[in-house]
Amino acid sequence: MTTKEKAKKMGDENVFPLEIKNDEVSIIHYGLSLREYFAAMAMGHMAGNSKYTDIDVIASDAVRIADALLEQLCREE
Questions:
Q1: Given phi > 0 = left and psi -120 to 50 = alpha, else beta, which region is 67?
Q2: pLDDT tens string for the chain (77 positions)?
């Protein structure tokens, strides 16, 4: 499996899954994917930085950062 494939698999894993059970109902919320979580963290930082003004650039850069982080984490395993 290539590093990119490993990173994709890792990025698809859920962060903060939650299962709520009571006598009648079981609700499962899988949370964000790891990739979404990393992108949101990067996007929040860039949105708070005045040098980033184009939201399309912020969004695409956030995803690129998330993907790069996942790939780097896979290289270090």
A1: alpha
A2: 898 999 999 999 888 888 788 877 777 778 889 999 999 999 999 988 888 889 899 999 999 999 999 999 998 76
Residue 62 is encoded by which pair of tokens?
A: 């956030």
Taking the C-alpha atoms of residue 46 and residue 65, their distance in angstroms, rounded to an integer, is: 11
Give the structural domain span for 58.
3-75
pTM for the model = 0.78
Question: Looking at this protein, which amino acid is placed at residue 50?
Answer: S
Q: Cα separation of 65 and 36, whole Å?
A: 11
45 CB contacts (<8 Å, ≥6 apart)? none
